[in-house]
Amino acid sequence: MIIGVPKEIKNNENRVALTPAGAKELIKNGHEVFVQSTAGLGSGFSDNQYTEEGAQILPDIESTYAKAEMIIKVKEPIEKEYSLIKENQLVFTYFHFASYEPLTKAMIESKSVCLAYETVEKPDRSLPLLVPMSEVAGRMAIQEGAKYLEKPLQGRGILLGGVPGVRPAKVLVLGGGIVGTQAAKMAAGLGADVTIMDISLARLRYLADIMPANVNTYMSSEYNIRELLGSHDLIVGAVLIPGAKAPHLVTRDMLKLMKPGTVLVDVAVDQGGCIETCKPTTHENPTYIIDDILHYCVANMPGAVPYTSTLALTNATLPYAIELANKGWKKACGENNELKLGLNIINGDVVYKGVSEAFDLPYHAVENYV
């Protein structure tokens, strides 16, 4: 199979979908790998490192899309890429369709095959291609939140871990999944007073067992969230419904319950956000203020630490990419249910319920295609 790796062109997105080591593994399996010039530079990989492993370098994004049967990316295609995607071309990347209708409609019109990292799912309901970036984003949420709590950046002026004789900051984490768990661990490690909320009592029991003493668990409900908002300095939105739009747990009217300078970090922004006042921002302009509350809503948080993120992501995606290349998407998805659940759009038909429900589009059973 001919595999193309374009350079990411989303604002400040420095990750790349395939490392030189990953290219070598695909080439060892008999495939051709074409990498757009400088695609790996932001993650610390030069064109020479790819060519040394047998990959070929193409000069621009147009030739990369034109050449490839399978495109491997990190972030969803943006508008200037829509017209480059061909009928029957397999695109393997994060899509997050349910949060952005123009992208969904563009991919339907392209008649390509869209296999989304975020909906590849194991039998135990875990999401193996979302986990590594969720781990990065969860930890980064605290790193960024701690920074924006500083007064010069318009936060409350609180040191996350406090000092002897002064209480630490209070951190509220909404959601006890991978992002929330990593956020709580990071905040606890920095000495904050942490509360993590979830709707699953079983998950809260597990978290209570594994978390340090400065992390409290609390059942998530609108009443309980409202009760806590006024006393916390950093609030992290970490809610995920696979392939679907995130629910709004913090609504606009709740902002008035918070102290001025409170920082909101919405990690669910690429799924629509679990904070109603959330809107996607970039690393270039990461924050904005509504009602004296600072919002950090960068949609590609792991892009700020591309070396770590690229290695973590390709560790997870490479085995699936090799399987897709070796067998072709139809056979691979027919034999591997994890990959089959990753299929969102096939030749203009929506085959993932969360996407069809988000925009009231006709749903087609994926079994009709594989």
3D architecture notes:
With 370 residues, the protein is of the alpha/beta class. It folds into two domains: 189 residues, Rossmann fold (3-Layer(aba) Sandwich), CATH 3.40.50; 169 residues, NAD(P)-binding Rossmann-like Domain (Rossmann fold, 3-Layer(aba) Sandwich), CATH 3.40.50.720. Helix content is 34%, strand content 16%. The protein is built from 13 helices and 15 strands. The strands form two sheets. An eight-stranded mixed beta sheet has the order 3-2-1-4-5-6-14-15, sandwiched between helices. Strands 9-8-7-10-11-13-12 form a seven-stranded mixed beta sheet, sandwiched between helices. Strand 4, helix 4 and strand 5 form a beta-alpha-beta unit. It is globular and about 65 Å long. InterPro entries: Ala_DH, Ala_DH/PNT_CS2, AlaDH/PNT_CS1, AlaDH/PNT_N, AlaDH/PNT_NAD(H)-bd, NAD(P)-bd_dom_sf. It comes from Splendidivirga corallicola. One of its GO terms (molecular function) is alanine dehydrogenase activity. Its EC number is 1.4.1.1.
- Strands of the widest sheet, in order across it, are 3-2-1-4-5-6-14-15
How confident overall, as mean pLDDT? 96
Low-pLDDT stretches are none
Helix content bin: 25-40%
N-to-C series of helices and strands? EHEHEHEHEHEHEHEHEHEEEEHHHEEH
Number of helices: 13
Largest sheet: 8 strands, mixed
Q: Classify the beta-strand content into a percent band.
A: 15-25%
Return the CATH architecture of the largest domain.
Answer: 3-Layer(aba) Sandwich
Class of the largest domain, according to the CATH hierarchy?
Alpha Beta
| CATH fold-type name of the largest domain | Rossmann fold
Query: What general outline do the C-alpha atoms trace?
Result: globular
Radius of gyration: 21 Å
Structural class: alpha/beta
Query: What's the domain count?
Result: 2
Family: Belongs to the AlaDH/PNT family.
Keywords: NAD, Oxidoreductase
EC number: 1.4.1.1
Domain Alanine dehydrogenase/pyridine nucleotide transhydrogenase NAD(H)-binding: 149-297
